[in-house]
Specification:
184 residues; alpha/beta; five-stranded parallel β-sheet
């Protein structure tokens, strides 16, 4: 499927009777976005597909002046099924925030232009952006820095160096769709 242009970008969930770790890893390394072992619960399968579809409708902004951080997270989040846009500094991030419908912003605290804290404050004062969750990803690791970030309104605070899979998990959890209300 990956070699066929008409299926480019199509997320694939593998379903197999084999749950051996080497087989699961082989499927994921081949490009599957998820791997489900038979027998499976139909409700669990529906939830996984629903989450994947929700992620495809979301846009995550990564603003960091470190190219390697941006590239790594863009890759990891796209593999996780997210749409991602990146910015090299705070000014470019602010332009993106004003022109695109961003679902989550991952901001470095220390970058040229506007720093992450300034961007968060600007977003808080903006009618359309005040509810966008912000995750700080920064080398600033003092308790006072973390508390200031969270008290200013950040949804999460992650320090560098970081585990990229942990960042993806913590960020995608913030993209959860709201539970549906039962029809009456």
């Amino acid at each position: 499927l990956q070699t066929m242009p008409e299926f480019e970008g199509l997320p694939v969930i593998m379903i197999s009777a084999s749950g051996r770790p080497d087989e699961v890893m082989r499927g994921l390394m081949a490009g599957a976005v998820d791997y489900i072992t038979k027998p499976f619960d139909a409700h669990d399968m529906a939830m996984k597909v629903r989450k994947r579809l929700w992620r495809l409708q979301s846009l995550i902004l990564i603003a960091d002046d470190d190219e390697s951080v941006r590239d790594l997270l863009v890759h990891k989040l796209r593999v996780a099924g997210c749409n991602v846009v990146s910015a090299v500094d705070g000014a470019q991030a602010w332009e993106i925030l004003q022109s695109r419908s961003v679902s989550l912003a991952i901001l470095d605290l220390m970058m040229p232009g506007y720093d992450g804290m300034t961007l968060l404050r600007m977003m808080t004062e903006h009618e359309r952006l005040h509810a966008v969750p912000v995750v700080f990803l920064t080398a600033r690791h003092l308790s006072s820095d973390i508390l200031e970030g969270l008290n200013t309104g950040a949804a999460d605070y992650i320090t560098k160096p970081f585990n990229s899979d942990e960042v993806v998990t913590r960020c995608t959890r913030l993209l959860r769709p709201q539970p549906r209300q039962n029809a009456r």
